[in-house]
Amino acid sequence: MDRWPDLPADHPFGPTNLPYGAFLTRDAARARIGVRIGDEVLDLPGLLQADGLADSSIWAGALLEPTLNRFLELGHTAWAGARAWLLETFADPERNDAVRRHLHPLDEVELVLPFRPADYVDFYASEQHATNVGRIFRPDQAPLTPNWKHLPIGYHGRSSTIVVSGTDVVRPSGQRRPKDAEIPTFGPSQRLDIEAELGFLVGGPTAVGQPVGIDEAEEHLFGVMLFNDWSARDLQAWEYVPLGPFLGKSFASSVSAWVVPLAALCEARVDLPEQDPQPLEYLRGDGSGLFGLDIRMEVRLNGTVVARPPYREMYWSPAQMLAHLTVNGAALSAGDVFASGTVSGNAREERGSFLELSWSGQEPMVLDDGSERSFLQDGDTVTITGWAPGPDGTRIGLGEVTGTITPANHPG
Amino acid sequence: MDRWPDLPADHPFGPTNLPYGAFLTRDAARARIGVRIGDEVLDLPGLLQADGLADSSIWAGALLEPTLNRFLELGHTAWAGARAWLLETFADPERNDAVRRHLHPLDEVELVLPFRPADYVDFYASEQHATNVGRIFRPDQAPLTPNWKHLPIGYHGRSSTIVVSGTDVVRPSGQRRPKDAEIPTFGPSQRLDIEAELGFLVGGPTAVGQPVGIDEAEEHLFGVMLFNDWSARDLQAWEYVPLGPFLGKSFASSVSAWVVPLAALCEARVDLPEQDPQPLEYLRGDGSGLFGLDIRMEVRLNGTVVARPPYREMYWSPAQMLAHLTVNGAALSAGDVFASGTVSGNAREERGSFLELSWSGQEPMVLDDGSERSFLQDGDTVTITGWAPGPDGTRIGLGEVTGTITPANHPG
Q: Can you say which residues of B are annotated as belonging to the binding site for substrate?
């Protein structure tokens, strides 16, 4: 693989990453699909049209759309075709000038959500996170529910409030029951939290009643994103029995602007932690779906690194989550998103939520400026970054997902 | 209101109902929005274009689309404009011939889903249902959770598996834990159930961070549908702790083909049951949102009436559900759907699920052919019908939602 001219070999957005995004330029009314290289974005429709590919190739035609959804519909062979063309284009020195004509510096464009979310499911795939939450929320019971090691627990979330990195998050209001109170009160959440997760963007639609086997699941996994599942713990604790989280989560979920193709993460594949008891056959298959991903994440609160969650320790694989999601015959749509659930490792500094990092407020975090936090204050900014190992010691960057809390609209 | 020629005055689809649907004719590649009158469907684009309205009115232009979503985006003043024109058109004898030119007999068209579902939320708004389920699933605890009378409990469901009445439902497979077993087994659901509900179709999109007050909620309620929230009780019982129902519900939810405008249900408005304790202010407002709906439902299993659930006994009002759904700042999209949760009254024959009717299998139902059922067998057909009082002793029909169970794709 030739290195893209003038880009340091260790740049996280080198010519083996090539994540997809969507951008607006100052004078454009409609978003365009782009591919990130270094600190620039390649105007994909521009290059495809200049090359004449947009008329002759179905995948190229789909990439002229303002979102990835048409491209996601085409499925994995189209994705592979597009990626092969991109890798070749960036590796060919004779094409450098042609590419350069369609590059925009990132600071001159506005990045927007590159897909229309269809259904959104959030999983709960970290054993350490589920154990911590169980200890905090249900101290009188076993931390893991009896089903936890038999299936990847998940639930549907609100897809219309998935927002792109950089979008402010308005502090949600709602009901919560103060400790030892009989009845609830209403007001802005006082325990506003994050969940550092990985999100998976799904394509290759399927029909209702047709489960996707675990060995085929990978064909529907287009790419990965960093994901922040903002959570109002006080709302959640009061509302979630018996039907699960609702308003404690549905106000906003933030995703990184760049979708890194799963195909760019070959070197990041690792074995899963041991699964004991052995899961049922539909969650095992021939074993090819049982891969983890070595993605290192970093959570910053107002600039201070407060956690480094290790994705490689997640108990359930992305293919297991997708196979489970469809085993009852639920259809997949282009633009479906599922997230992993909070990524937490064994060490305290590897926990992916403030609930766990501050142990429900008992052990506040200390920031570099000396201030303390258990949960988020208005004006606080949370930024999650991530990267994975790439070929030849390079890094595959996942960019960042960032958001700032603005005051509630409904003062309590 | 003149009566539409040749239609019996007591026809449930008379000229004061006028529900919206979408239909395909034999030679059409694209669905068209229609309005039901009697046992015919008015080709709305046909009449609007013949009238020249399609070019001059924004709402009429939106009704040329193959789904209601553009029309739903326009909001309640557009809906009122369209309904006023429709009521006038059907009331004017001089327009009878013009209308007749655009009618199709229902048995010559195929009805399809008239909207692209955006987010879907299912509530749990019947006190009797929640009490029955609590007694069955959690016999060692109080039947209602402490939050139940303080907020309308809800959760997000899968919108891509919302299907139109008449669509077959493939029996879902999945994990369930047999009674007294330590570990789960995999196979087709053995406790496949229904939930007779009312669905609400939402329009008038809102921005993230902007709650809809209860007094404004009605402006976002376009219309109502009959809704069957098929439920695999064995999958649900094993998976739902702690994050709520997932695969036990996400394989299919069926809706009636006709969306009855809320504006057609003025005579059906009734007082809510008493709410004690009084809910928080955001669920009360000036009181205008605290209306129930006198909709009578009938559930048939293979032709035998097994239940008559009374919607008027629902504890939470549709406006309360919508206000609650957005109080944390969650945005509304055109095409959002929320359902009421199972409608159950006090009497045994008023229960809207087989779980309750058979008391979890202990008291099977006896059908007219002498056979017994607790849960659904392959080949069984469930049909839910409904109607509400209309003006002058007439009836507003909601039509039906029907579905037949086909065998599982994954035999266990």
A: 124, 138, 236, 240, 342
Active-site residue B11, yes or no?
A: no
CA distance B216 to B319: 8
Residue A342 known to bind ligand:
yes
- CA A26 from chain center: how many Å? 28
The predicted-structure confidence for A245-292, as pLDDT tens digits, reads as follows 999 999 999 999 999 999 999 999 999 999 999 999 999 999 999 999
Q: How many CB pairs under 8 A join A and B?
A: 206
* Strand, coil or helix: A159: helix
Residues of B with Cβ-Cβ distance to A331 under 8 angstroms: 160-161
Percent of chain A with pLDDT over 70: 99
A310-329 pLDDT, tens digit per residue, is: 999 999 999 999 999 999 99
Q: Look up the CATH number of domain B120-406.
A: 3.90.850.10
Q: Please report, in range form, the residues annotated as the binding site of B for Mg(2+).
A: 229, 249, 253
Instruction: Check whether A29 has a pLDDT greater than 90.
Output: no
Nearest to B202 by CA among B110, B79, B112, B384: B79
DSSP-derived secondary structure letter, A265: G
Q: Return the structure tokens found at A129.
A: 């996170």
Q: Which chain B residues are within 8 Å of A154, Cβ to Cβ?
A: 243, 246
Between positions 275 and 314 of B, the ones with CB within 8 A of A are 277, 280-282
For A185, phi and psi rounded to 5 degrees? -120, 165
Q: Which of B11, B102, B129, B220 is an active site residue?
A: B129
Pairing of strands A196-202, A221-228: antiparallel
From chain B residues 168-187, the ones with a CB under 8 A of any chain A CB are 170, 172-175, 177, 183-186
Min Cα–Cα distance to chain A from B348, Å:
24
Mean pLDDT of A64-80: 98
- A117-158 pLDDT tens trace: 999 999 999 999 999 999 998 899 999 999 999 999 999 999
The single residue of A11, A76, A104, A129 carrying the catalytic annotation is A129
Q: What is the ipTM of this complex?
A: 0.96
Q: Do B245 and A243 touch (CB under 8 A)?
A: yes
**In angstroms, what CA-CA distances link B331 with A155, A157, A381?**
19, 13, 22
pLDDT tens digit string along B2-26? 468 789 989 999 999 999 999 999 9
A34 forms beta bridges with A21, A43
Give the confidence band of A5 by pLDDT, cuts at 50, 70, 90: confident
Q: Is B374 left (phi over 0), alpha (psi -120 to 50) or beta?
A: alpha
Considering only CB atoms, which chain A residues are within 8 Å of B160? 118-119, 330-333, 336
Query: Under an 8 A CB cutoff, do B328 and A209 touch?
Result: no
Which CATH number does B20-112 carry? Answer: 2.30.30.230
Report whether pLDDT(B179) > 80.
yes
Structure tokens at B37: 């009158």
Q: Does B160 touch chain A (CB under 8 A)?
A: yes
Domain layout of chain A by residue ranges:
20-112, 120-406
